[in-house]
Design brief:
It is built from 10 helices and 10 strands. The chain is of the alpha/beta class. It has 2 domains: about 5-120 and about 305-320, 2-Layer Sandwich (Nucleotidyltransferase, domain 5), CATH 3.30.420; about 130-300, ATPase, nucleotide binding domain (Nucleotidyltransferase, domain 5). Helix 5 (about 165-175) packs antiparallel against helix 8 (about 235-265). The chain starts with a helix and ends in a 14-residue tail after the last helix.
Length: about 325
């Protein structure tokens, strides 16, 4: 192994949705982690794919330059560049992918395509202490809800998934129905802290195996709000905290009831949680209580590594580089 290979320095780029991010990693230590969020989507109450792609084009070069400068690294010192290959918005993925390929061609270094969901799970490897293999991870994001058995840094098996909507989408649609601005998930969490989680009862879908379903919950909330507003036009405003608290409680209970069953049947003693929704206060608290009740060891990534970021892409890129894996420049992104 050459001296350069003894010290592995990678740039990583994340552009799956509406955050343009870049990170620099050296021997699995993050030297810089920069995220530029797109404010324009607030005007529309959700992410507009065309606008997201255009914003990535504007942000990606400044973000990469800032990451390299903060890390004290020059482009010529890089051994490779990891990037989000999917899933995500196709236009956004294309911007990050094409930028990476062009830079790799100029520097004559390999490009490393990374699965965005695998990277969310791998955020655990950035903690000071990480779970021992195998462990079960609950991945909860805006577009995906999965139970994953993690056998090794790059060896992950999905054993459960939502059959329709994701938990993060349920939070976002709840916020929209309540008239809250985008992004609504953090606002639901904020108002829920002031409310009674048992004020209203919402249904929990009973799916066989380790599957989840949240579409029925959203429909139930819609009918509930329509009935309440019909009786009192100010129903939502008067009961906002309790509605948020009750919905949050139902979503978290749905997630953890099924996850607890999966962990017991998998007979593992260490568990993790990942994805943007893992920043939810109640989910983090109940996740740790669940572990304590069963004698399991719980691992939760730092807040900065829960939402979309390039550090998580970087760490997967590091392990792929060690394994000798790279991605052909002809490889296409995948939306799902």
């Amino acid at each position: 192994m050459t001296e350069k290979q003894d010290t592995i320095t990678l740039l990583a780029i994340e552009s799956s949705c509406d955050d343009t991010a870049a990170a620099v990693i050296r021997n699995c230590k993050i030297l810089a982690n920069i995220v530029s969020s797109q404010e324009i989507h607030k005007e529309y109450g959700g992410v507009i794919p065309e606008l997201a792609g255009r914003a990535h084009q504007q942000h990606i070069l400044p973000v990469v330059k800032k990451a390299l400068k903060e890390a004290g690294i020059e482009a010529k010192d890089l051994d490779g560049i990891a990037y989000t290959q999917g899933p995500g918005l196709m236009g956004s993925l294309l911007v990050g992918g094409h930028f990476t390929k062009g830079m790799c061609m100029a520097l004559n270094i390999p490009s490393i395509g990374v699965n965005h969901l695998q990277a969310h799970v791998a955020a655990h490897y950035l903690n000071e202490s990480m779970p021992n293999f195998p462990f079960l991870c609950l991945l909860v994001s805006g577009g995906h809800t999965q139970i994953i058995k993690v056998k090794a840094p790059l060896d992950m098996e999905i054993i459960g998934s939502t059959i329709d909507d994701a938990a993060g989408e349920a939070f976002d649609k709840t916020a929209k129905m309540l008239g809250l601005p985008y992004p609504g998930g953090p606002l639901i969490d904020q108002y829920a802290e002031l409310g009674n989680p048992l004020a209203y009862q919402f249904p929990i879908a009973r799916i066989e195996g380790y599957g989840y379903s949240f579409s029925g919950l959203k429909t139930s909330l819609l009918y509930f709000l329509q009935k309440g507003v019909k009786e009192d036009p100010d129903f939502i405003a008067k009961n906002l905290n309790d509605i948020c608290a009750s919905m949050r409680y139902t979503i978290v209970k749905t997630l953890l009831d099924k996850f607890e069953k999966a962990v017991k049947e998998a007979d593992v003693k260490e568990i993790g949680i990942a994805g943007g929704v893992s920043a939810n206060k109640l989910l983090r608290k109940e996740f740790e209580k669940l572990a304590a009740k069963n004698g399991w060891k719980a691992f939760i990534p730092k807040f900065e590594y829960c939402t979309d970021n390039a550090a998580m892409i970087a760490v997967v890129g590091h392990y792929k580089f060690l394994a000798g894996e790279s991605t052909p420049l002809s490889a296409l992104p995948f939306a799902r």
